[in-house]
Design a protein that fits this description.
This protein is an alpha/beta fold and 533 residues long. The chain is 34% helix and 16% strand. The strands form four sheets. Strands 2-3-1-4-5-6 form a six-stranded mixed sheet, sandwiched between helices. Strands 8-7-13-12-11 form a five-stranded mixed sheet. Helix 14 packs across helix 15, helix 15 runs antiparallel to helix 16 and helix 18 packs across helix 19. The longest helix is centred in the last third of the chain and has 22 residues. The protein is elongated. It starts with 11 loop residues before the first strand and ends with a strand. The structure holds guanosine-5'-triphosphate. Guanosine-5'-triphosphate binds next to helix 1 and helix 2. Pfam families: BTB, Ras. This is Rho-related BTB domain-containing 2-like isoform X2. Keywords: GTP-binding, Nucleotide-binding.
Length: 533
């Protein structure tokens, strides 16, 4: 079936636009995007390369394609006829170049050779066959500049040459060549059709301006503008980073060493005879539900008031107009009239998970022992929990910590073994106090450790490997959750486009740089906020 063409219509400018460029740079896809309104996802595109030429006959046989060829640019009605060509350098394209109105010269933004050939081969060929035809330079496959190239290479055909990061061309590379050749430059991606309209509208402009020079009597061409500059491409937002929590530390101190060298601790267990065991909430809470519950308990101001504790006011920086909405960590919400709590008593609970420790409170030992929450009915082994100023075991500076007072049957060494298990997933089977470890594990509801002890006593210690494996999987998931929710975070990294809450203990355990940063040798070691370059 032949369809009526536009050649004979008055005031419709038919424009022959020839598309040339190396093999596989994206000529056919670009034509299909304009002529057939074809959009494909990046992976559909990658999975298929058919080295074909889009048939010009489509305008004759397909009504829809013919209709899409019609357009109005700068008030001129046009019919755009796109001619696809072979990318093969040795093919004869003189038939295509004949009577062309504009040439769209394509290269791939992921193939530097194709840009080199623009200068060395394509532009000279165009100038040879149609010296007066305007040319527009187009960098195709723009989406690859921002794509995950590993994923793209995996999705490409097995024999396709992988795209290296160094293959990706910048906008300047294209602009430089275009400037040298004195032609306009555009970038396109057929994913989401970026730039497709820019290329062809401006190719039409270039063709119409050239025609206006020759056919000056055509008054309807007087409003045609020179090819316009392209608006910049807004790169897609990068996907959120994949959070990977290694089971075994790559470097840094490792969880076990961190437990025994208690850097940046935020919880202390008070045992009989004044013994203290320091630890890190994030490690305990992500390995044991009982500790998770404990550290997310909320201390209500009203309860604290019942304890009849009245804070000293002179320390409070919020008294004289502090930050609205911030929690005054010194008054801890008790009977405080400062702006930070808006004086609203009883509605300003202080969660134990609040990680406003460290520097903000150092040197203010004003929170008295005695307030907090009774835990005797909450769990076996626990007496009370509260927030208090405690001397940091490493820096000897006063720091606000969660203080957990334990019952007398909880003894230092076996408790340490339980806590070490919560850091590492391991239990030393040669210990002589395994029964006491089991008792504490049971009280703290660390049932997998209880089972480990039973396995050792039953001479089935080999089964503990599975428990350790499951421990790490479970803990990694909980750490991911804490990271995504910022729970128990005690440091905030400020980067260009926002801020990321993090956990000093996790960073220290896995990275020597972080150990150096938080060890206390720098002023910033105590800061809760880090500005990243
Ligand atoms: N990611 C991405 N891939 C593209 C884009 N355009 C084309 N491709 C892919 O690049 C490969 C080549 O595309 P074609 O349009 O067939 O290239 P061509 O220049 O016509 O190739 P020849 O016919 O061999 O001259 C195909 O696998 C396309 O799917 C694009 O904008 N983005």
């Amino acid at each position: 079936m032949d369809i009526d063409l536009d050649y004979e219509r008055p005031n419709v400018e038919t424009i022959k636009c020839v598309v040339v460029g190396d093999n596989a740079v994206g000529k056919t896809r670009l034509i299909c995007a304009r002529a057939c309104n074809a959009t494909l996802t990046q992976y559909q595109l990658l999975a298929t390369h058919v080295p074909t030429v889009w048939a010009i006959d489509q305008y004759r046989v397909c009504q829809e394609v013919l209709e899409r060829s019609r357009d109005v640019v700068d008030e001129v009605s046009v019919s755009l006829r796109l001619w696809d060509t072979f990318g093969d350098h040795h093919k004869d394209r003189r038939f295509a170049y004949g009577r062309s109105d504009v040439v769209v010269l394509c290269f791939s933004l992921a193939n530097p050779y194709s840009l080199r050939h623009v200068k060395s081969m394509w532009f000279p060929e165009i100038k040879h066959f149609c010296p007066r035809t305007p040319v527009v330079l187009v960098g195709c496959q723009l989406d690859l500049r921002y794509a995950d190239l590993d994923a793209v290479n995996r999705a490409r055909r097995p024999l396709a040459k992988p795209i290296k990061p160094t293959d990706i061309l910048s906008p300047e590379n294209g602009h430089e060549v275009a400037k040298e050749l004195g032609i306009p430059y555009y970038e396109t991606s057929v994913v989401a059709q970026f730039g497709v309209k820019d290329v062809f509208d401006n190719a039409i402009r270039a063709a119409l301006i050239s025609r206006r020079h020759l056919q000056f009597w055509k008054s309807h061409l007087k409003k045609v503008q020179r090819p316009l500059l392209q608006a910049p491409f807004l790169p897609p937002k990068p996907p959120p980073p994949i959070i990977h929590t290694p089971d075994q530390p790559q470097n840094g101190q490792g969880p076990a060493a961190l437990f025994y060298t208690p850097l940046c601790t935020d919880v202390v267990f008070q045992l009989q005879r004044g013994q203290k065991v320091f630890a890190h909430k994030v490690y305990l809470a992500t390995a044991c539900s009982k500790f998770y519950e404990l550290f997310t308990l909320e201390l209500c101001a009203s309860e604290l008031k019942e304890k009849n504790w009245s804070p000293k006011r002179d320390h409070c920086p919020f008294q004289n107009g502090g930050t609205q909405g911030a929690t005054c960590t010194k008054c801890v919400g008790v009977d405080c009239q400062c702006e930070a709590t808006n004086g609203q008593l009883g509605v300003s609970p202080l969660p134990l998970r609040t990680s406003l420790s460290d520097n903000a409170l150092r040197g203010h030992g004003v929170v008295p022992v005695g307030w907090g929450k009774e835990l005797t009915e909450w769990g076996r082994g626990f007496i009370r929990v509260c927030l208090n100023m405690v001397e940091d075991p490493l820096t000897q500076c006063e720091t606000l910590m969660t203080v957990v007072q334990m019952e007398s049957f909880i003894q230092g060494e076996p408790l340490r073994a339980v806590l070490e298990y919560l850091y590492t997933g391991h239990l030393d089977q040669s210990r002589t106090d395994l029964m006491q470890v089991a008792t504490i594990a049971e009280a703290l509801e660390v049932f997998d450790l209880r089972m480990m002890v039973s396995n050792i006593l039953n001479k089935e210690a080999f089964m503990n490997q599975e428990i350790t494996k499951a421990f790490h999987v479970r803990r990694a998931n909980r750490i991911k959750e804490c990271l995504s929710r910022g729970l128990f975070s005690d440091v905030l990294f400020t980067v260009d486009d926002g801020s990321v809450p993090a956990h000093k203990p996790l960073l220290i355990a896995n990275c020597d740089w972080m150990v150096a940063m938080f060890r206390g040798a720098f002023r910033e070691s105590f800061s809760q906020e880090s500005n990243m370059p």
